[in-house]
Design a protein that fits this description.
By secondary structure, the protein is an alpha/beta fold. The strands form four sheets. Strands 1, 2, 3, 4, 5, 6 and 17 form a seven-stranded mixed β-sheet that branches. The protein starts with a strand and ends with a helix. About 3% of the residues have low confidence.
């Protein structure tokens, strides 16, 4: 039996593994896709200790650090979490951090994969998110044929072309800046009055002569033949609702990958985020969570890693109390 199974494959999962290794917990990390969404990030400039680093480089450093410890990694999909015995709190009863109730008769969990049933005393869920889609006509039809979700992956395909970015977050603004290195022109199409980028990012967008923001506007359809040729807007831009584009990159948020947790009885909110307290405990004793999948208001690599350390330490205290 493991002391801890971590479910996930991104920076939060591997950061939890680092701390679990330091605490000498017998640990297994189970992740279908190692790397996570941070691998799609071209530049990170807000992670302490690195003035500038790519998402891939940051992940690989954290992974390499984790592998210095005696942990196991299984690159498979976790299909379910099954409780063997024990108390389940009410679906909204996430304990106060000072209320350190732990075992109450619980003897652990089984994490089920396609071929194995893996026994563990505790679980950390760090399954992250996947990118949200617009779900408008033409989006599925032109996926990877002009419609994309990662500038780092696909931006270089559109050198000297006209590109659109849908979204108003810091991620959307960062995507536009990266795409401006290739494109002739980049439009940011945002449904509200002002983009919500961090001040430094917003200033870079304002200074970039290739980038133009179309505010208070939604993309309602994508058109083309074999490839995307244009998008239809819900209000006119320069006298027309049709905007000619060679590519459209969509950055409208992320959806928590919490179905596995919810199926096990872990409480989630209306956004499908896992509800935790400040010790990263969920409503089920012995199950902890961290990273983008939880209900934190601010989602960054640094906050996910901090939660991961907290979750690992909470799991250690729980195991010590059994």
């Amino acid at each position: 039996m493991y002391d801890l199974i971590i479910i996930g494959g991104g920076v939060a999962a591997f950061a939890a593994a680092i701390y679990a290794g330091r605490l000498q917990l017998k640990t297994l990390l189970v992740g279908e896709k190692v790397g996570g969404t941070i691998m799609l990030t071209d530049e990170i400039a807000n992670y302490p200790g690195f003035k500038k680093i790519t998402g891939m480089e940051l992940f690989l450093r954290i992974k390499e650090h984790a592998q210095d410890y005696d942990i196991e990694v299984l690159e498979e999909r976790a299909e379910s979490i099954e409780r063997q015995t024990g108390l389940v709190r009410n679906s909204t009863d996430v304990p106060e951090p000072a209320d350190r109730r732990n075992s109450n008769g619980a003897v652990g969990f089984e994490v089920v994969t396609k071929d194995e049933r893996l026994k563990t005393k505790t679980v950390i869920i760090a399954t992250g998110t996947h990118l949200r889609k617009l779900n408008v006509p033409g989006e599925a039809e032109f996926a990877n044929r002009g419609v994309h979700y990662c500038a780092l992956c696909d931006g270089a395909l559109y050198k000297n072309r006209v590109i659109g970015v849908v979204g108003g977050s810091d991620s959307a603004a960062t995507e536009a800046l990266l795409l401006s290195e290739y494109a002739e022109k980049v439009f940011i199409i945002y449904r509200k009055e002002k983009i919500r980028a961090e001040p430094v990012t917003a200033q870079r967008v304002d200074r970039n002569k290739k980038i133009e923001i179309i505010n208070n506007t939604n993309v309602i359809e994508m058109k083309g033949d074999k490839f995307l040729h244009s998008v239809i807007l819900d209000k006119p831009y320069k006298g027309s609702n049709e905007l000619k584009l060679d590519a459209l990159f969509i950055q409208v948020g992320q959806i928590p990958l919490s179905d596995l947790a919810a199926a096990a009885g872990v409480a989630t909110n209306e956004k499908k985020e896992i509800i935790i307290n400040r010790d990263c405990e969920t409503n089920i004793p012995g199950i902890f969570a961290c990273g983008d999948v939880v209900d934190g208001r601010f989602k960054q690599a640094i906050t996910g890693v901090a939660q991961a350390v907290t979750a690992a330490h909470s799991a250690y205290e729980y195991v010590a109390g059994l």
